[in-house]
Design a protein that fits this description.
- The structure holds 2 protein chains of 2 kinds.
- Chain A is mainly α.
- Chain A has one domain (about 5-275): Orthogonal Bundle (ABC transporter involved in vitamin B12 uptake, BtuC), CATH 1.10.3470.
- Chain A is built from 11 helices and 2 strands; from the N terminus they run ααααββααααααα.
- Chain A has helices at about 5-30, 40-55, 60-80, 90-115, 140-160, 165-175, 175-180, 185-210, 215-230, 240-255, 260-275, and strands at about 130, 135-140.
- A two-stranded antiparallel ribbon of chain A has the order 1-2.
- Chain A is globular, with a radius of gyration of 19 Å.
- Chain A starts with a helix and ends in a 9-residue tail after the last helix.
- Chain B is globular and about 70 Å long.
- Chain B has helices spanning about 10-20, 45-60, 80-95, 105-120, 150-160, 175-190, 210-220, 230-245, 260-265, 270, 285-300, 305-325, 330-335, and strands at about 1-5, 30-40, 70-75, 100, 120-125, 140-145, 170-175, 195-205, 225-230, 250-255, 275-280, 340-345, 345-350, 360, 360-365, 380-385.
- In chain B, a hairpin with a 6-residue loop joins strand 13 (about 345-350) and strand 14 (about 360).
- The two termini of chain B are about 30 Å apart.
- In chain B, helix 2 crosses helix 12 (about 305-325), helix 3 (about 80-95) packs parallel to helix 4 (about 105-120) and helix 12 (about 305-325) crosses helix 13.
- Chain B contains 13 helices and 16 strands.
- The longest helix of chain B is centred in the last third of the chain and has 20 residues, at about 305-325.
- In chain B, about 40% of the residues lie in helices and about 20% in strands.
- By secondary structure, chain B is an alpha/beta fold.
- The chains are: A mainly alpha, B alpha/beta.
- Chains A and B meet through helix 1, strand 2, helix 9, helix 10 and helix 11 of A and helix 2, strand 8, helix 7, helix 8 and helix 9 of B.
Chain lengths: ~280, ~400
Amino acid sequence: MNIYLFQALNGLGVGMVYFLLSVGLSIIFGLLGVVNFAHGALFLVGAYAAMSVGGATGSFVAGLLASFVVVALIGLLGERLLLRHTYGMPHEAQILITVGLAFVLTEAVVLLFGPEPRQVPVPEGLAGVLMLGAYPVPIYRVFVAGVCALIGAALWLLFERTLFGARVRAGNESARMLSLLGIRVKRVYALTFALGAGLAGLAGGLAAPLRGADPAMGAEAVVIAFVVVVLGGIGSFSGPLVGGLLIGITQSMMSTLWPEGARLAIFLLMAATLLFLPKGLFGRV
Amino acid sequence: MDRRSLLSVAGISLAAPSLIVPTLVRAQPRPFVYHSVNAFSGPFAVSGKYSDLGVRAALKAFGNDLGRAIDYRRIDTEGNPAIAVRKVQQAIGQDQARHFGGAALSNEALAIMKEIGQAGGVYLTYVGADEVTGRDCNRSTFRWSLPTYGAVHTVLQPLLQQNPKWKRIYTITGQYVFGEALLRNAKAVMQPQGVQHIGNSYHALAEKEFSGYLGNAMSSGADVLLVLNFGANTLDLLRQAAAFGIKRRMAVVVVWFSGLDTFQALGADVTEGMYFGLQYWHGQDTPGNRAFLKVFREEFKENPRFYSAADYQIAMLMFDAVRRAGSDTPAELVKALENHRYEGLTGEEEIRAFDHQVVKNYLLVRGKGKAAMKDADDYADILSTTRAVVPQAASDCKMTPA
């Protein structure tokens, strides 16, 4: 197999993780108009929740479920206790609150688990590599890409084929109209925020065996999530998918073409998008 | 600034005489104030956590030898050089602080050593940047760790001699000053040995995804993957290298590895069979290390990490210099430290006068498999220890004479 084909396939796998990491951010902004700077910290908490519950129960699946549930609950609480009071305020208020929340969550993780990076083992059945020609691909990476694709399909069904999804989409267009129709908009907001947060947590849970768990991982994750969302378009569902894949493939291909510029390339891509398509590829806002 | 006074030796020793002669007013000797500069919070807080243990172990080990209290204060840099400089300036200006140790990050150390140098203080550090005892050296600053030259020579030279089949090396290098210095030295070692450097992938400091670079290494047909970065970059790279089964294709050599903390973060499954260069390993059997381990294990019931060892060593050097000089005047301490030979953690160590670099052993170790580990921290076998330092003729340090 050609190195470039390997890098393209590898980039697809990386891109699927980026999609899952950023789709919650996009959904939250699309409906609530909240720029959630705590998204990376939610990813971080998800990784630690998966590590703790997975370690305590010996079940990788229980760890993954915990990463979603725990972080969704944190999201629900955060929305009800803090963010709900800022919806009528300028974005600066939400930014301050979510940045503060990110600090609190990160320091809480340090307090509970210590500042050291932690090892999170790959589940036994998913260890090992598959050979693509001469190139090995870790089975766990293939699994993660597959899970992300399934979650993507489930999210599409949720937003396009269910009553809840219709309400979220309607709220995205006009929350006032939704309220006049007798829908409890605040509940839709809270559930959407919890879902977005839970997806960040699940991404953290899936990423933990790939990257370990460490208190600094949230700060890096939120940067990537914003790049993906800006590129794909804020407020859309397909945006993070295409944005994530584009970023993943670009980063992976550039690792061979121009290694020192691999990371720079994703930011250049974002800058070019902002310049020529200010709303992103599929942006609605 | 966080202040901790852990010993009041003089207070205790002076209390008894004052009971006997209550009418005399006795002047308490001024405590010796030692500032430990480190990231005690923020993303690099792990270094601060363990460096604190190291200083506390040094206070315990040094006991009453100074004849006066040692006032241990912490300066939290938050891993940010700008904050480090501001807080050190504040300590110098407001508290007349002159005695400093620590900093886990090269950019912090390089920034604060200038401030301390201008204030005429004394500063001991253990960061890796060559400049500390090279181009940017100054009279106030001493460095315990061996810089990149020693690390590369200690690790690469014996491995290349012992493995004549290793003919092609691929490098993955952090694109920052430290990574560049490692790469430059690695090339200098490879060339005379007839080893081909067949490719290099630079990566950014913030990089987390190394699969693309590993693809390059795999397609290169290299015999060895030489890792030239540090900290979180090394952890992410090695974790992903193991997942891609790199170890089955080529040898993996990491020139600069923190030690026990990073072995624990990766686990033996990842590190087994890889080669690492270390400044310190708790399993090294030297008189200095035995004494340190005794105190550290008694106090903290665990084995020391690199940051604990390094901060213990530099604090001990500072306290001992004050004792030997009979004064805490910085100029006297500099004199006491220059050419000082002592039983250090890695064996006999010596501080060179011309660049203030400690000449010490650097360790080459190989990661053990889980089955071979005698205890939970027995991650590696020591293969060799070597002291390689830049010779004076090749040094960039042009120290201004006192």
